[in-house]
Structures are given as C-alpha cells and as structure tokens.
Amino acid sequence: MAAEKPYTAAIVGLGRIGYSLGLDKKREQPASHTSALNDNPRIKIIAGCDTDECALKAWHEANRKAAVYTDSANLYARHRPDIIVIAVNENAHQKEAVEAIKSKPKLVILEKPVALNMDEAKYIQAVAESFGVPVLVNHERRFAEDFKTAKKYLSSIGPVQSINACLCSSLCVYNPAEENSGAYSLLHDGTHLVDAVLYFLEKDSQISGTIQKAYHEEKKGGLLSMAKSITEQKPSFTLSQLLNEPVLTGIFRDEKQNIRQFSAHYSNGLCPDITISMSGRSRFFSFEVTITGTQGRICIGNGYLKLYRRENSTLYSGFYSLAADKSVKLPKKTLFFANMIKNAVDFLDNRAPLLSTIQSGINALAVLEEIKRLFQKQ
Ligand SMILES: NC(=O)c1ccc[n+]([C@@H]2O[C@H](COP(=O)([O-])OP(=O)(O)OC[C@H]3O[C@@H](n4cnc5c(N)ncnc54)[C@H](O)[C@@H]3O)[C@@H](O)[C@H]2O)c1
C-alpha cells in the first residue's frame, strides 16, 4: 500500500511552546509544536514564522528544509499549508488567528487562551465559521492519557460530591494593567484549570456551550434614566453553561490592589460543590483537581494521578476508608502533545472529531471573564 501523503504544516510563533520547550530535558517530550509535528510521520513542516529574527534563526538551524518568514502574510503568499499553528503571544492571537483562517488551511491549531478577551475570541470564531475553517485550541489536558484515565474513572466513584481545582504560582492572579498583554495567571494558566474542570463536567466529551445574559441594571429614578433604558439595548455578556454565577471568597489583594488569591464557588446539577481557587502568592507551581464521589476520589495534578475507592477500613472496624485502587493501570506517559497532533491528523483523515475546539476554549474564557467582572464589584 502506498504511504499516505503527509499533511503540510506551518508554525507562526517560534518561542517556547512553538519551539524551545521541545529542548527541555526535564519535560515529557514532545513538548513543543515543532517537536510534536516533526515526530508525527503524517506531517511535514514546510515553513516557520517569527517576528523575532533571533528566534527564527535558531529554529531554522534545527529545521533546515523549512522556509522561514518574519511576517505571516509573506508565508501565506507563498505557501498553502494544510495545518497552521498559531503559537504567538496572547496580544497577537486575534490578528494571527484571523490571518491564518483567511488563508484557508484545512485546520488551524491555536494556542490557549483563545484570545485576550471574549470579544476577540468571538471575532476569531465568527471568521472561522464564515471561512469554514476548523480551529483546534491547545488545551492540552483534553488529550492527555492521565486526564482521559481520570475521566473514565468518574463512573467508579459514585455521584460527585465536590470538585476542587487549585492553581498555585507566583504570578499575579489579576492585574487590570495587563489586560492588553494577558500576563496574569487567571488568563495564562487559569484557562487550563477551568478547561480541566469543564472537561470533567462534560458528558461523554460533549463540549458544552455558552448562554447570553443581559446586565442587570440598577433602577435609578428620573426621566433621563427612563428615556435611556427605552432607547438603549441592554448590553449582554456570555456565561458558561456549566460554570456560572459563582460566589467569590478568599480574595486577597496586594499592596498595589492587584488580585493575588481567590476562590470561586459554583453549584450545578452535576455537582453541588465546585471550587476553583488560584493563588499568585506561592513559591511553587502546582496544578491540581480533586474530585470526591460518594464511593471514591480522583486526585490529578501535574505529574501525578491518584485513584481511590472505598474499601473495608484497616483502621476502624465496621467502617469503610479510601484506599488506592490498584486495579487500574496508570499511564506511564501523558502523551499530551503527541495526542493533540494525532487528534489533528485523525480529524483531517475524517476519523475523529476535534477534542478541544474554539467553543470549548470560549467556554473557559467565559468563566474567567465572569470572575474578573466580580473582582470589579468587590
Ligand atoms: N499549551 C500550553 O501549555 C502553553 C505553554 C506555554 C505557552 N502557551 C501559549 O502559547 C503562546 C506563546 O507563548 P510562549 O510561552 O511560547 O511565548 P514566547 O514569547 O516564548 O513565544 C512567542 C513567540 O511569538 C513571536 N511572535 C509574537 N507576535 C508574532 C507575530 N505577529 N508573528 C510572528 N511571530 C510572533 C515572538 O517573537 C515569540 O518568539 C501564548 O498564547 C501562551 O499562553 C501555551
């Protein structure tokens, strides 16, 4: 049988996730778009683009056969890649994603978060729909073997009583002055944390949607305000279907009044007690989701997966305790990046749906934007 023709790929943004994380000896490899695309026999990288000539030169030295550009418009003028990866900084997501979509590839792989904010994200989504170009968003945990094993194990722990998702780092959680760069952890890493919770809440990997809600305007007296409310349409905002209208607690602001810590509490028909917590006060990095059911518990974080089921207690007669479930084979590698690229190939082969889409990315953004709005009210 003749070998299948490889899909061609181009990468825009050759920094850490585009290239250099693929050289990190401590990380599970492949850990960059370049190494994951190069590792997949069904893909051939034909071009790379970065506005930074040093980054471009370093990448070209390792990818001699690919053409290089400092401007994506020049790349699209000369090549028609099947797959375009957008791995630029957050402030360039909208521009580069839209330009890539308009060049009509078979698939765009867009780094998380979808964009700096909901308006930009929805604009990318609208352009993608009008050009008929599918977009895969790299929320990598949806592809990782450990997260897939954890999701499968949900059916073994009974009805879910609580979900606790917690992110600790030293990066400021929210600083309004960084709205145009996205350099705050609520967006930067928070998008992964919220996406992970949504992933566990979604039934049979059916990606949920969003709902529109009009702002509740406080009634003010006077003819002027009445005239205003008649003539003006109420502005609306987008809420996640699964995680909305939280109660915020534990807000801690630093001396500059930037948010350094918070917890958001949710309740829905799937779980009565969901908490998403983030701290930017920690001298360590950790990412963890703990799900407690009536008969067991799942604890998953960066580098570990622990599955527990109730068993006759070894500590107390007549009680059950949680014990590690040794019957489940835990994956040795997460394959987070390799599986993401495999999903792209399977999708292009018409063999699988995209497992992480622009809609799932927008759902995470809706949760983050609602939390930000609540910060402003506190
Ligand atoms: N999925 C993940 O786990 C993960 C991990 C790290 C970063 N990211 C995301 O990937 C994106 C890039 O992050 P990074 O850490 O690699 O940043 P980075 O600064 O290391 O790399 C970004 C690169 O894009 C280039 N660039 C910026 N604007 C450009 C443009 N208009 N055209 C071409 N090149 C341009 C920059 O010169 C730089 O080399 C961000 O959205 C970030 O949130 C995701």
TrEMBL record:
Q: Name one GO molecular function term.
A: nucleotide binding
* Residues forming coiled coils: none
Kindly give the Pfam families that the UniProt entry links to this protein: GFO_IDH_MocA
For this protein, the record's Gene3D superfamilies field holds: Dihydrodipicolinate Reductase, domain 2, NAD(P)-binding Rossmann-like Domain
**What are the Gfo/Idh/MocA-like oxidoreductase N-terminal domain coordinates in residue numbering?**
9-139
Could you tell me which InterPro entries the record lists for this protein?
Gfo/Idh/MocA-like_OxRdtase_N (IPR000683), Gfo/Idh/MocA_Oxidoreductases (IPR051450), NAD(P)-bd_dom_sf (IPR036291)
* Bilayer-crossing regions: none
Concerning PANTHER family, the annotation shows:
BILIVERDIN REDUCTASE A
Name by which UniProt lists this protein: Gfo/Idh/MocA family oxidoreductase
